[in-house]
Amino acid sequence: MDFFTRLAQLIGEMGMARIELLESNDRLSNSRNMLSTIINSIPQSIFWKDRESVYLGCNRVFARQAHIDDLDGIAARMISTSRGVARSRKVTAPNETRHSWKKGD
Question: Residue ranges per domain, the chain?
Answer without folding.
Answer: 1-41, 43-92
